[in-house]
Amino acid sequence: MDPDPPLHETYKPLFANTKISSKDDDDDRRLVTVEERQLPLIDLGRLSLNEVEKEKCREEIVRAAHEWGFFQVINHGISTELLEKLREEQVRVFKQPFQNKFLSFSAGSYRWGTPAATSLRQLSWSEAFHIPMTDISSSSMEPFATKVASLAQKLAEILAEKLGQNSSFFQQSCLPSSCYLRLNRYPPCPIPLDIYGLMPHTDSDFLTILNQDQVGGLHLVKDGKWIAVKPNPEALIINIGDFFQAWSNGFYTSVEHRVVTHPTRERFSAAYFLCPTYETVIESCSQPSVYSKFSFGEYRQKVQEDVQRYGYKVGLPRFLA
């Protein structure tokens, strides 16, 4: 049985009704990919050295979160063996027959394509498992999940302390029941149209930790232009989410990013999302506040309404003070 979701067949009407877009009539494509670049690279091993090295490392983390919204880390405490086991588990679950995927993990965790897409710009050529951390305890991914959750808390605490804020906020509000792991697979897409693996977006969380393979395809906006992120086999990618931007009163940056498809190669990645509970209120840590305060539940509801109405997420501009 075919393991791939029926993307070609399901979205055939969109292909038939879409001409190849030009840079002149596509606002998103005006942000041209100009080059492949390395993200800021931070060696977390220095956090276990003397106080001078610790402070330099913390400063680099803060600077990258402020200036880029994205950075990569090495010596992060997650072994190559754990990452290899994660990759093996991903291949196993994604290569099983398509119909069997709906029975993996918890109900509703498997997703593919973009059900509400009315144009190719709204289509994500991908499949994913969205797995709450509470559902991972009995799986082979549990050792990785435990390590990556601890790393996320450590980074969030450093970012909070640099703003003079209480770092315990994240342990109190970001619980295993609200955080999750997402396994991604981007099938080859030989169709000669502008189709995303994942459409441009920002993350609705505090921060995301990404482990990706070496195929490439992750792009982000930097200085008004799309840049292609050069894969680093030793590094994990960290990016700031909307909630940290709001909480930091705009000091940390939640950056728009996307995944582009490859015509012949499949791509795998795994992302951990540090999310608060639905009741958690996000409020700027300084005044005057750029954003009005909101709960995660309110934010999620507004995102769902906008996606249904417009086909995309509006996000933080909805909550400007």
Automatic annotation (TrEMBL):
Write down the InterPro entries for this protein, in alphabetical order: DIOX_N, IPNS-like_FE2OG_OXY, IPNS-like_sf, Iron_ascorbate_oxido_reductase, Oxoglu/Fe-dep_dioxygenase_dom
**GO MF entries:** metal ion binding; oxidoreductase activity
Q: Any idea where the Fe2OG dioxygenase domain is?
A: 177-276
Q: Which keywords annotate this record? A: Iron, Metal-binding, Oxidoreductase
Q: Where is the composition biased (Basic and acidic residues)?
A: 1-11
Region spans: Disordered = 1-24
**Short name of any one Pfam family annotated for the protein:** DIOX_N
Instruction: Describe the family membership recorded for this protein in Swiss-Prot or TrEMBL.
Output: Belongs to the iron/ascorbate-dependent oxidoreductase family.
> PANTHER family attached here?
2-OXOGLUTARATE (2OG) AND FE(II)-DEPENDENT OXYGENASE SUPERFAMILY PROTEIN-RELATED
- What is the name of this protein? Gibberellin 2-oxidase 8, ARABIDOPSIS THALIANA GIBBERELLIN 2-OXIDASE 8
Q: What lineage, starting at the top, does this entry show? A: Eukaryota, Viridiplantae, Streptophyta, Embryophyta, Tracheophyta
